[in-house]
Amino acid sequence: MTAHYDARETREQTAREADLFARLPEVLRAAMAAPAYAERLKGLDPAAVTSRAALEDLPVLRKSELPALHKASAPFGGFVAAAPGSFARLFTSPGPIFEPEGRQADPWRGARALFAAGFRPDDIVLNTFSYHLTPGGFIFDASARALGCAVIPAGPGNTEQQFELIEAYRPVGYSGTPDFLKILLDAAASSGRDISSIKRALVSGAAFPPSLQAEIKGRGIDAYQAFGTADLGLIAFETEAREGMVVNEDLILEIVKPGTGDPVAPGDVGEIVVTSLDPHHPWIRLALGDLTAALPGTSPCGRTNMRIKGWMGRADQTTKIKGMFVRPEQIAEIGKRHAELGRLRLIVTRQGETDAMTLRAEAAPPSDSLRDAIAASLRAITKLGGAVELVGPGTLPNDGKVIVDER
Fold first, then answer.
1. Are strands 354-362 and 387-391 parallel, antiparallel or unpaired?
2. Is 349 in contact with 321 (CB distance < 8 Å)?
Protein backbone atom coordinates (compact mmCIF):
# COMPACT_ATOMS: atom_id res chain seq x y z
CA MET A 1 0.00 0.00 0.00
CA THR A 2 1.39 3.39 -0.98
CA ALA A 3 1.88 6.20 1.51
CA HIS A 4 -0.43 8.53 -0.42
CA TYR A 5 -3.92 8.28 -1.82
CA ASP A 6 -2.75 9.08 -5.36
CA ALA A 7 0.06 10.77 -7.26
CA ARG A 8 -1.80 14.08 -7.37
CA GLU A 9 -1.01 14.63 -3.69
CA THR A 10 2.74 14.77 -4.32
CA ARG A 11 2.92 16.71 -7.59
CA GLU A 12 4.76 20.00 -7.77
CA GLN A 13 2.67 22.85 -6.42
CA THR A 14 3.22 24.81 -9.63
CA ALA A 15 1.70 21.91 -11.59
CA ARG A 16 -1.28 21.80 -9.21
CA GLU A 17 -1.87 25.54 -9.54
CA ALA A 18 -1.65 25.32 -13.33
CA ASP A 19 -4.19 22.49 -13.36
CA LEU A 20 -6.63 24.26 -11.02
CA PHE A 21 -6.59 27.51 -12.94
CA ALA A 22 -6.75 25.79 -16.32
CA ARG A 23 -10.01 24.17 -15.16
CA LEU A 24 -11.44 27.28 -13.46
CA PRO A 25 -12.73 29.13 -16.56
CA GLU A 26 -15.02 26.23 -17.51
CA VAL A 27 -16.32 26.07 -13.95
CA LEU A 28 -17.02 29.81 -14.06
CA ARG A 29 -18.97 29.36 -17.29
CA ALA A 30 -21.04 26.64 -15.64
CA ALA A 31 -21.61 28.85 -12.59
CA MET A 32 -22.78 31.76 -14.74
CA ALA A 33 -25.54 29.58 -16.17
CA ALA A 34 -27.23 30.01 -12.76
CA PRO A 35 -29.10 33.34 -12.38
CA ALA A 36 -27.49 34.44 -9.10
CA TYR A 37 -23.96 33.88 -10.35
CA ALA A 38 -24.86 35.44 -13.72
CA GLU A 39 -25.85 38.61 -11.87
CA ARG A 40 -22.87 38.62 -9.49
CA LEU A 41 -20.37 37.94 -12.27
CA LYS A 42 -22.01 40.10 -14.93
CA GLY A 43 -19.51 41.21 -17.57
CA LEU A 44 -16.90 38.66 -16.50
CA ASP A 45 -14.85 36.89 -19.16
CA PRO A 46 -14.21 33.45 -17.61
CA ALA A 47 -11.26 32.87 -19.92
CA ALA A 48 -9.43 35.74 -18.21
CA VAL A 49 -9.58 34.19 -14.72
CA THR A 50 -6.52 31.97 -14.82
CA SER A 51 -4.58 33.12 -11.75
CA ARG A 52 -5.06 33.87 -8.07
CA ALA A 53 -4.70 37.57 -8.78
CA ALA A 54 -7.56 37.41 -11.28
CA LEU A 55 -9.69 35.34 -8.92
CA GLU A 56 -9.22 37.94 -6.16
CA ASP A 57 -11.08 40.48 -8.30
CA LEU A 58 -14.28 38.40 -8.16
CA PRO A 59 -16.84 39.15 -5.42
CA VAL A 60 -16.92 37.07 -2.26
CA LEU A 61 -20.10 35.16 -1.43
CA ARG A 62 -20.55 34.97 2.33
CA LYS A 63 -21.98 31.81 3.82
CA SER A 64 -23.80 34.00 6.35
CA GLU A 65 -25.82 35.41 3.42
CA LEU A 66 -27.05 32.01 2.22
CA PRO A 67 -30.10 31.55 4.51
CA ALA A 68 -31.71 34.76 3.25
CA LEU A 69 -30.72 34.03 -0.35
CA HIS A 70 -32.08 30.49 -0.20
CA LYS A 71 -35.32 31.73 1.33
CA ALA A 72 -35.73 34.36 -1.37
CA SER A 73 -35.11 31.88 -4.19
CA ALA A 74 -35.61 28.32 -2.98
CA PRO A 75 -33.95 25.96 -2.81
CA PHE A 76 -30.40 27.06 -3.74
CA GLY A 77 -30.65 30.83 -3.94
CA GLY A 78 -30.22 30.83 -7.71
CA PHE A 79 -26.63 29.60 -7.44
CA VAL A 80 -27.25 26.17 -9.01
CA ALA A 81 -28.25 25.91 -12.66
CA ALA A 82 -29.09 22.18 -12.53
CA ALA A 83 -32.50 20.92 -11.46
CA PRO A 84 -32.71 19.58 -7.90
CA GLY A 85 -33.67 16.18 -9.30
CA SER A 86 -30.29 15.88 -11.01
CA PHE A 87 -28.60 15.35 -7.64
CA ALA A 88 -28.42 12.18 -5.56
CA ARG A 89 -29.55 13.52 -2.18
CA LEU A 90 -30.96 16.83 -0.94
CA PHE A 91 -30.15 18.12 2.56
CA THR A 92 -30.73 21.05 4.85
CA SER A 93 -28.54 22.61 7.53
CA PRO A 94 -29.45 25.18 10.20
CA GLY A 95 -30.28 28.54 8.67
CA PRO A 96 -31.83 26.92 6.78
CA ILE A 97 -29.24 26.33 4.06
CA PHE A 98 -30.07 23.73 1.42
CA GLU A 99 -27.29 21.47 0.11
CA PRO A 100 -27.36 18.94 -2.74
CA GLU A 101 -25.14 15.87 -3.02
CA GLY A 102 -23.72 15.00 -6.43
CA ARG A 103 -24.06 11.59 -8.04
CA GLN A 104 -20.34 11.10 -8.71
CA ALA A 105 -18.13 8.85 -6.63
CA ASP A 106 -16.83 10.53 -3.47
CA PRO A 107 -18.90 13.71 -3.99
CA TRP A 108 -17.61 15.27 -0.74
CA ARG A 109 -13.90 14.59 -1.52
CA GLY A 110 -13.28 12.75 1.74
CA ALA A 111 -11.63 9.48 0.72
CA ARG A 112 -8.12 10.94 0.76
CA ALA A 113 -8.70 12.40 4.24
CA LEU A 114 -9.63 8.95 5.54
CA PHE A 115 -6.62 7.46 3.77
CA ALA A 116 -4.32 10.01 5.42
CA ALA A 117 -5.79 8.95 8.79
CA GLY A 118 -4.81 5.33 8.15
CA PHE A 119 -8.08 3.92 6.79
CA ARG A 120 -7.67 1.32 4.03
CA PRO A 121 -9.91 -0.70 1.68
CA ASP A 122 -11.89 -3.46 3.43
CA ASP A 123 -11.73 -1.68 6.79
CA ILE A 124 -15.02 -1.54 8.67
CA VAL A 125 -15.90 1.99 9.81
CA LEU A 126 -18.34 3.00 12.54
CA ASN A 127 -19.81 6.28 11.27
CA THR A 128 -21.50 8.24 14.06
CA PHE A 129 -22.28 11.48 12.22
CA SER A 130 -25.98 12.16 11.84
CA TYR A 131 -27.81 10.80 8.80
CA HIS A 132 -30.97 12.79 9.48
CA LEU A 133 -31.58 15.64 6.96
CA THR A 134 -28.08 17.11 7.32
CA PRO A 135 -25.23 15.83 5.12
CA GLY A 136 -22.70 14.97 7.84
CA GLY A 137 -23.37 11.24 7.97
CA PHE A 138 -23.44 10.89 4.20
CA ILE A 139 -20.23 12.92 3.76
CA PHE A 140 -18.22 10.39 5.74
CA ASP A 141 -20.27 7.41 4.56
CA ALA A 142 -19.71 8.18 0.87
CA SER A 143 -16.04 8.96 1.48
CA ALA A 144 -15.40 5.67 3.30
CA ARG A 145 -17.21 3.66 0.65
CA ALA A 146 -15.24 5.43 -2.10
CA LEU A 147 -12.10 4.25 -0.33
CA GLY A 148 -13.43 0.70 -0.31
CA CYS A 149 -14.48 0.49 3.34
CA ALA A 150 -17.64 -1.06 4.74
CA VAL A 151 -19.68 1.41 6.79
CA ILE A 152 -21.85 0.91 9.86
CA PRO A 153 -24.35 3.83 9.59
CA ALA A 154 -24.66 4.23 13.35
CA GLY A 155 -25.36 7.93 13.74
CA PRO A 156 -24.98 9.57 17.16
CA GLY A 157 -26.50 8.37 20.43
CA ASN A 158 -27.91 5.03 21.61
CA THR A 159 -24.62 3.71 22.97
CA GLU A 160 -26.02 0.31 23.98
CA GLN A 161 -27.02 -0.54 20.43
CA GLN A 162 -23.69 0.84 19.19
CA PHE A 163 -21.87 -1.58 21.52
CA GLU A 164 -23.81 -4.49 20.01
CA LEU A 165 -22.78 -3.42 16.52
CA ILE A 166 -19.15 -2.91 17.51
CA GLU A 167 -18.87 -6.27 19.26
CA ALA A 168 -20.48 -8.04 16.30
CA TYR A 169 -18.76 -6.33 13.36
CA ARG A 170 -15.46 -5.35 15.08
CA PRO A 171 -14.90 -2.08 13.20
CA VAL A 172 -11.32 -0.86 13.07
CA GLY A 173 -12.24 2.75 12.30
CA TYR A 174 -14.42 5.50 13.77
CA SER A 175 -15.74 8.67 12.16
CA GLY A 176 -17.64 11.24 14.18
CA THR A 177 -17.07 14.02 16.68
CA PRO A 178 -14.27 13.62 19.22
CA ASP A 179 -16.81 14.25 21.98
CA PHE A 180 -18.93 11.25 21.04
CA LEU A 181 -15.85 9.05 20.74
CA LYS A 182 -15.03 9.87 24.35
CA ILE A 183 -18.64 9.15 25.35
CA LEU A 184 -18.39 5.72 23.72
CA LEU A 185 -15.07 4.96 25.37
CA ASP A 186 -16.27 6.06 28.82
CA ALA A 187 -19.56 4.18 28.55
CA ALA A 188 -17.82 1.01 27.35
CA ALA A 189 -15.34 1.16 30.21
CA SER A 190 -18.05 1.61 32.82
CA SER A 191 -20.26 -1.16 31.44
CA GLY A 192 -17.57 -3.69 30.55
CA ARG A 193 -18.24 -3.62 26.79
CA ASP A 194 -15.45 -4.44 24.34
CA ILE A 195 -14.81 -1.79 21.71
CA SER A 196 -11.07 -2.45 21.50
CA SER A 197 -11.32 -3.21 17.78
CA ILE A 198 -11.39 0.56 17.05
CA LYS A 199 -7.80 1.60 16.41
CA ARG A 200 -8.09 4.76 14.31
CA ALA A 201 -10.46 7.66 13.91
CA LEU A 202 -11.17 10.65 11.72
CA VAL A 203 -12.89 13.30 13.82
CA SER A 204 -14.51 16.60 12.92
CA GLY A 205 -17.35 18.90 13.87
CA ALA A 206 -16.08 19.87 17.34
CA ALA A 207 -12.96 21.07 19.12
CA PHE A 208 -10.28 18.45 19.70
CA PRO A 209 -8.00 20.02 22.33
CA PRO A 210 -4.58 18.51 23.15
CA SER A 211 -5.86 17.10 26.45
CA LEU A 212 -8.56 15.09 24.67
CA GLN A 213 -6.12 14.09 21.93
CA ALA A 214 -3.81 12.66 24.59
CA GLU A 215 -6.66 10.82 26.30
CA ILE A 216 -7.87 9.22 23.06
CA LYS A 217 -4.31 8.26 22.14
CA GLY A 218 -3.81 6.77 25.60
CA ARG A 219 -6.80 4.52 25.00
CA GLY A 220 -5.18 3.02 21.91
CA ILE A 221 -6.87 5.03 19.16
CA ASP A 222 -4.89 7.03 16.60
CA ALA A 223 -7.21 9.97 15.85
CA TYR A 224 -6.82 12.55 13.09
CA GLN A 225 -8.71 15.78 12.52
CA ALA A 226 -10.47 17.00 9.38
CA PHE A 227 -11.98 20.39 8.57
CA GLY A 228 -15.05 20.53 6.38
CA THR A 229 -18.45 22.10 5.85
CA ALA A 230 -21.86 20.90 4.74
CA ASP A 231 -21.47 22.95 1.56
CA LEU A 232 -18.07 21.73 0.42
CA GLY A 233 -17.36 18.47 2.21
CA LEU A 234 -13.78 17.85 3.38
CA ILE A 235 -11.64 20.95 2.88
CA ALA A 236 -8.42 20.04 4.71
CA PHE A 237 -7.16 17.15 6.78
CA GLU A 238 -4.45 16.09 9.17
CA THR A 239 -1.73 13.66 8.09
CA GLU A 240 0.82 11.50 9.88
CA ALA A 241 3.15 14.52 9.97
CA ARG A 242 0.83 16.18 12.53
CA GLU A 243 1.86 19.59 11.20
CA GLY A 244 -1.33 21.47 10.36
CA MET A 245 -3.85 20.29 7.78
CA VAL A 246 -3.25 19.69 4.08
CA VAL A 247 -5.77 21.34 1.76
CA ASN A 248 -7.80 18.88 -0.30
CA GLU A 249 -7.34 18.49 -4.04
CA ASP A 250 -9.77 20.16 -6.49
CA LEU A 251 -10.25 23.19 -4.25
CA ILE A 252 -8.76 26.68 -4.43
CA LEU A 253 -8.37 27.97 -0.89
CA GLU A 254 -7.65 31.62 -0.12
CA ILE A 255 -7.11 33.33 3.23
CA VAL A 256 -8.42 36.89 3.25
CA LYS A 257 -8.73 39.78 5.64
CA PRO A 258 -12.03 39.34 7.53
CA GLY A 259 -14.85 41.24 5.90
CA THR A 260 -13.01 41.61 2.57
CA GLY A 261 -11.82 39.53 -0.36
CA ASP A 262 -8.24 40.78 -0.04
CA PRO A 263 -5.48 38.25 0.73
CA VAL A 264 -3.65 38.44 4.04
CA ALA A 265 0.13 38.63 4.25
CA PRO A 266 1.83 35.21 4.28
CA GLY A 267 1.34 33.57 7.68
CA ASP A 268 -1.30 36.01 8.89
CA VAL A 269 -4.62 34.77 10.27
CA GLY A 270 -7.60 35.45 8.06
CA GLU A 271 -10.92 34.14 6.79
CA ILE A 272 -11.12 30.99 4.67
CA VAL A 273 -12.53 31.49 1.16
CA VAL A 274 -13.00 28.44 -1.07
CA THR A 275 -13.65 27.95 -4.77
CA SER A 276 -14.66 24.44 -5.82
CA LEU A 277 -14.21 22.94 -9.27
CA ASP A 278 -17.43 20.95 -9.59
CA PRO A 279 -19.29 22.32 -12.66
CA HIS A 280 -22.54 20.69 -11.53
CA HIS A 281 -22.52 22.63 -8.25
CA PRO A 282 -19.71 25.19 -8.23
CA TRP A 283 -18.85 27.48 -5.35
CA ILE A 284 -17.07 30.67 -6.40
CA ARG A 285 -15.21 32.40 -3.56
CA LEU A 286 -17.43 31.14 -0.74
CA ALA A 287 -16.34 32.87 2.49
CA LEU A 288 -16.92 30.41 5.31
CA GLY A 289 -16.60 32.74 8.28
CA ASP A 290 -13.84 30.53 9.76
CA LEU A 291 -10.33 31.74 10.56
CA THR A 292 -7.03 30.05 9.80
CA ALA A 293 -3.46 30.79 8.71
CA ALA A 294 -1.24 29.16 6.10
CA LEU A 295 1.85 27.25 7.13
CA PRO A 296 5.07 27.73 5.13
CA GLY A 297 6.80 24.97 3.20
CA THR A 298 5.76 21.42 2.42
CA SER A 299 4.48 18.79 4.81
CA PRO A 300 7.02 16.16 5.91
CA CYS A 301 4.47 13.53 4.88
CA GLY A 302 5.28 14.31 1.24
CA ARG A 303 1.97 15.94 0.30
CA THR A 304 2.73 19.18 -1.48
CA ASN A 305 -0.54 21.11 -1.30
CA MET A 306 -1.00 24.23 0.82
CA ARG A 307 -1.22 23.62 4.57
CA ILE A 308 -3.33 25.49 7.10
CA LYS A 309 -3.16 25.58 10.88
CA GLY A 310 -6.73 24.34 11.19
CA TRP A 311 -9.76 26.10 12.63
CA MET A 312 -8.78 29.22 14.60
CA GLY A 313 -12.11 30.86 15.41
CA ARG A 314 -14.83 32.81 13.65
CA ALA A 315 -14.27 35.74 11.31
CA ASP A 316 -17.68 37.34 11.78
CA GLN A 317 -16.95 39.77 14.59
CA THR A 318 -19.74 42.25 13.84
CA THR A 319 -20.88 44.04 16.98
CA LYS A 320 -23.32 46.82 17.90
CA ILE A 321 -21.94 50.01 19.45
CA LYS A 322 -24.30 52.76 20.59
CA GLY A 323 -27.02 51.14 18.51
CA MET A 324 -24.88 51.02 15.33
CA PHE A 325 -23.43 47.85 13.79
CA VAL A 326 -19.69 47.96 13.23
CA ARG A 327 -18.27 45.31 10.89
CA PRO A 328 -14.78 43.95 10.14
CA GLU A 329 -14.99 45.24 6.57
CA GLN A 330 -15.28 48.79 7.93
CA ILE A 331 -12.05 48.36 9.86
CA ALA A 332 -10.45 46.95 6.71
CA GLU A 333 -11.55 50.07 4.83
CA ILE A 334 -9.63 52.21 7.34
CA GLY A 335 -6.55 50.15 6.54
CA LYS A 336 -7.04 50.78 2.83
CA ARG A 337 -7.29 54.55 3.42
CA HIS A 338 -4.06 54.53 5.42
CA ALA A 339 -1.70 52.14 3.64
CA GLU A 340 1.13 52.88 6.09
CA LEU A 341 -0.70 50.98 8.84
CA GLY A 342 -0.12 47.37 9.82
CA ARG A 343 -2.68 45.32 11.75
CA LEU A 344 -5.78 47.03 13.18
CA ARG A 345 -7.94 46.07 16.14
CA LEU A 346 -11.05 47.81 17.44
CA ILE A 347 -11.52 47.36 21.19
CA VAL A 348 -15.09 47.88 22.43
CA THR A 349 -15.59 48.64 26.14
CA ARG A 350 -17.94 50.47 28.51
CA GLN A 351 -17.06 53.78 30.11
CA GLY A 352 -19.56 54.30 32.87
CA GLU A 353 -22.88 53.54 31.23
CA THR A 354 -21.75 54.32 27.68
CA ASP A 355 -20.24 52.22 24.91
CA ALA A 356 -16.73 53.26 23.96
CA MET A 357 -14.30 52.12 21.28
CA THR A 358 -10.57 52.43 20.75
CA LEU A 359 -8.87 51.60 17.48
CA ARG A 360 -5.37 50.23 17.94
CA ALA A 361 -3.25 50.57 14.83
CA GLU A 362 0.30 49.45 14.10
CA ALA A 363 2.28 52.36 12.67
CA ALA A 364 5.90 53.41 12.30
CA PRO A 365 6.63 56.13 12.96
CA PRO A 366 3.58 57.31 14.96
CA SER A 367 2.53 60.94 14.78
CA ASP A 368 -0.26 63.14 16.05
CA SER A 369 -1.28 64.02 12.50
CA LEU A 370 -1.60 60.33 11.55
CA ARG A 371 -3.61 59.67 14.72
CA ASP A 372 -5.98 62.51 13.88
CA ALA A 373 -6.38 61.33 10.29
CA ILE A 374 -7.21 57.79 11.41
CA ALA A 375 -9.72 59.11 13.95
CA ALA A 376 -11.40 61.07 11.17
CA SER A 377 -11.58 57.96 9.00
CA LEU A 378 -12.97 55.94 11.90
CA ARG A 379 -15.78 58.45 12.39
CA ALA A 380 -16.47 58.79 8.65
CA ILE A 381 -16.71 55.04 8.09
CA THR A 382 -18.48 53.87 11.26
CA LYS A 383 -20.45 57.09 11.95
CA LEU A 384 -19.16 56.83 15.52
CA GLY A 385 -16.43 58.64 17.38
CA GLY A 386 -13.62 56.68 19.00
CA ALA A 387 -10.10 56.95 20.35
CA VAL A 388 -7.09 55.93 18.28
CA GLU A 389 -4.01 54.34 19.82
CA LEU A 390 -0.91 53.91 17.67
CA VAL A 391 1.32 50.96 18.55
CA GLY A 392 4.55 49.61 17.14
CA PRO A 393 4.72 47.14 14.22
CA GLY A 394 4.18 43.55 15.34
CA THR A 395 2.49 44.61 18.59
CA LEU A 396 -1.01 43.30 17.85
CA PRO A 397 -1.55 39.53 17.95
CA ASN A 398 -1.71 37.56 14.70
CA ASP A 399 -5.05 35.92 15.53
CA GLY A 400 -7.38 37.30 12.89
CA LYS A 401 -9.38 39.36 15.39
CA VAL A 402 -10.37 42.73 14.01
CA ILE A 403 -13.07 43.66 16.55
CA VAL A 404 -12.82 42.63 20.20
CA ASP A 405 -15.87 43.25 22.38
CA GLU A 406 -14.78 43.49 26.04
CA ARG A 407 -18.11 44.72 27.42
1. parallel
2. no
pLDDT at 323: 75
Phi, psi of 9 (to 5 degrees): -70, -20
Q: Give me the amino acid identity at 29.
A: R
DSSP string, 93-119: ETTTEEEEE-SSSSTT--HHHHHHTT-
Q: Counting runs of H as helices and runs of E as strands, what totals does the chain give?
A: 11, 21
3-state SS class at 186: helix
Could you tell me the CA-to-CA distances from 54 to 34, 59, 66, 201, 285 in Å, in that order? 21, 11, 24, 39, 12
Read off the pTM.
0.85
pLDDT in the model for residue 2:
65
User: The sheet that has 173-176: what strands, in order across it?
Assistant: 150-153, 124-127, 173-176, 200-203, 222-229, 233-238, 245-247, 307-308, 294-295
Residue 180's nearest CA partner among 258, 228, 126 is: 126
Q: Is the pLDDT of residue 1 over 60?
A: no
Q: If DSSP codes are grouped into helix, strand and coil, which group holds residue 168?
A: helix
10 Å Cβ neighbour count for 6? 12
- For residues 1, 199, 306 and 295, what is the CA-based torsion angle, rounded to 10 degrees? -130
Q: How far apart are CA 105 and CA 102, in angstroms?
A: 8
369 φ/ψ angles, rounded to the nearest 5 degrees? -65, -40
DSSP H or E stretch at residue 236: strand 233-238
Rounded distance, CA 180 to CA 369, Å?
56
Give the Cα separation of 130 and 268 in Å (integer). Answer: 34
Q: What is the mean pLDDT of residues 91-96?
A: 88
pLDDT for the residue 338: 96
Q: What is the 3-state secondary structure (H, E, C) of 119-164?
A: CCCCCEEEECCCCCCCCHHHHHHHHHHHHCCEEEECCCCCHHHHHH
Between the alpha carbon of residue 301 and those of residues 89, 172, 175, 297, the distances in Å are 35, 23, 22, 12
